[in-house]
């Protein structure tokens, strides 16, 4: 019976290649539906998920990069502004320092000049005082010397003589006056 | 002396040259003989191709999933190749004809048809298989019926009964012409579309297989059966066998593309607002 069925099917199929035999159709259906379900349920969902995730990741990364770039630009701008500010500040400081330095220099010069003046003054005063002292001492000494000399000449002491002493003093004063005139 | 006399078999070898017949496509059954699930060489080839496709695309699908889960989006060579192939169907065929939304809706059918046809066609030149899984009408017919159901479903879902009305009674035509037009439209839309889909594919593969068999059996015949200078003809037939093998590779991919593209176009025509 089986072989008859088989024989019939084969001769039928051989007769017309456009009419499918049952095994042909059945196996084709099995194969095709297996592949259809496989691609539908397994391959394509994974494929689409991957493509979408990738597109998202690329877009996300692009956005991130843009954000980072904007941040960097902002930072650069900030730094530049800060630099400009610092530069101005430095210039100001330098300027004021220069002015201050000039002022200090001027003050110092003035102070030095004053000090020099003061020192000159005091030196002059000292010299004057010393001169006066020297004059006084000299005068006394010269007076004594003159009197000694005169005593020696006159063979008597004139030391006790008030007249002699005042004469010598007067002479010396005249001498002084003369020297001053000259 | 005529050529047919010259190419007579050498004395004593016996048989004449026998060209390939349609019997090529009905090899003897191997398993389940006598049942409707009788397996012959072609059915086994189809099952083998199915297994190969499932193995290859399972590896690919796992790569996709791994890439999605780990966030490592730089594809390797294999994944890149798979992407290229799937995106060819998705972008160049489906999205191009149907737009992104409908393209993705009908993508499973289109992708399955495309890769199944390529896989089944290419076995026509794979040594030891040497026959296309699509060379007998069953598989092309099943796929054509799937395409047929899909484009009718697409139209009926979107336009309801008006789909059949506009398909059979084109608008803007005088009513008298419907006597002539309606039968033509019916035959071209609801009969010829699936029939041509199935036949184009099957006949391409049948012709390809017959050509290859002819080239190689005649090479064998010239080489081992014919005497004298006509042995040299074997070089020519072998060369043609080689050329037709290359052609078959091209035809395999081309037919997959044509089948998928036409299915897409039929779906697109069903979805179009006025046809």
Helices and strands, with pairings:
The complex is a heterodimer of chains A (182) and B (275).
Chain A: H1 2-15, H2 22-154, H3 162-181
Helix pairs in contact in A: 2-3
Chain B: H1 3-6, E1 29-31, E2 39-40, H2 41-70, H3 77-105, H4 107-122, H5 138-159, H6 161-168, H7 178-224, H8 233-271
Antiparallel strand pairs in B: 1-2
Helix pairs in contact in B: 2-4, 3-4, 3-8, 4-8, 5-6, 5-7, 5-8, 7-8
Describe the structure.
The complex is a heterodimer of chains A (182) and B (275). Chain A is mostly helical and 182 residues long. Chain A has one domain (30-181). Chain A contains three helices and no strands. Chain A has helices spanning 2-15, 22-154, 162-181. In chain A, helix 2 packs across helix 3. The longest helix of chain A is centred in the middle third of the chain and has 133 residues, at 22-154. Chain A starts with a helix and ends with a helix. The relative contact order of chain A is 0.03. Residues 1-13 of chain A have low confidence and may be disordered. Chain B is an all-alpha fold and 275 residues long. Chain B has one domain. Chain B is built from eight helices and two strands; from the N terminus they run H-E-E-H-H-H-H-H-H-H. Chain B has a two-stranded antiparallel sheet. The longest helix of chain B is centred in the last third of the chain and has 47 residues, at 178-224. The chains are: A mainly alpha (182), B mainly alpha (275). At the A-B interface, helix 1 and helix 2 of A face strand 2, helix 2, helix 3, helix 4 and helix 5 of B.
């Amino acid at each position: 019976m089986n072989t008859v069925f088989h024989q019939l099917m084969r001769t039928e199929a051989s007769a017309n290649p456009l009419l499918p035999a049952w095994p042909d159709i059945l196996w084709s259906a099995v194969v095709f539906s297996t592949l259809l379900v496989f691609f539908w349920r397994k391959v394509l969902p994974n494929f689409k998920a991957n493509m979408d995730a990738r597109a998202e990741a690329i877009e996300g990364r692009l956005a991130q990069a843009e954000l980072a770039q904007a941040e960097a630009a902002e930072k650069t701008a900030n730094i530049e502004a800060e630099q400009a500010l610092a530069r101005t500040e430095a210039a100001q400081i330098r300027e004021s320092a220069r002015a201050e330095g000039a002022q200090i220099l001027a003050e110092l010069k003035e102070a030095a000049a004053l000090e020099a003046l003061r020192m000159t003054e005091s030196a002059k005063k000292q010299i004057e005082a010393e001169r006066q002292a020297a004059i006084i001492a000299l005068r006394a000494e010269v007076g004594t010397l003159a009197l000694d000399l005169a005593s020696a000449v006159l063979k008597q002491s004139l030391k006790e003589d008030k007249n002699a002493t005042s004469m010598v003093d007067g002479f010396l004063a005249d001498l002084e006056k003369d020297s001053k005139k000259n | 002396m005529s050529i047919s006399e010259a190419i007579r078999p050498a004395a004593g070898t016996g048989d004449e040259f026998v060209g390939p017949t349609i019997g090529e496509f009905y090899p003897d059954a191997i398993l389940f003989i006598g049942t409707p699930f009788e397996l012959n060489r072609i059915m086994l080839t189809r099952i083998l191709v199915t297994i190969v496709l499932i193995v290859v695309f399972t590896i690919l699908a796992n790569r996709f999933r791994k890439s999605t889960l780990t966030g490592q989006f730089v594809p390797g060579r294999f994944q890149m190749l798979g992407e290229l192939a799937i995106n060819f169907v998705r972008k160049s065929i489906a999205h191009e004809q149907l737009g992104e939304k409908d393209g993705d809706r009908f993508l499973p059918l289109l992708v399955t048809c495309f890769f199944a046809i390529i896989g089944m066609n290419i076995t026509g030149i794979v040594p030891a298989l040497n026959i296309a899984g699509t060379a007998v009408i069953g598989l092309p017919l099943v796929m054509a019926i799937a395409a047929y159901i899909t484009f009718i479903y697409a139209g009926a879902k979107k336009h309801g009964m008006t789909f059949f009305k506009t398909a059979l009674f084109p608008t803007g035509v005088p009513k008298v012409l419907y006597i002539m037009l309606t039968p033509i439209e019916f035959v071209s839309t609801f009969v010829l579309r699936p029939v041509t889909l199935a036949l184009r594919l099957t006949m391409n593969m049948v012709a390809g297989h017959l050509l290859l068999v002819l080239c190689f059996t005649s090479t064998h015949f010239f080489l081992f059966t014919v005497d004298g200078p006509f042995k040299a003809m074997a070089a020519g037939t072998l060369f043609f066998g080689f050329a037709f093998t290359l052609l078959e590779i091209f035809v395999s991919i081309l037919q997959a593309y044509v089948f998928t593209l036409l299915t897409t176009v039929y779906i697109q025509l069903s979805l179009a607002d006025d046809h």
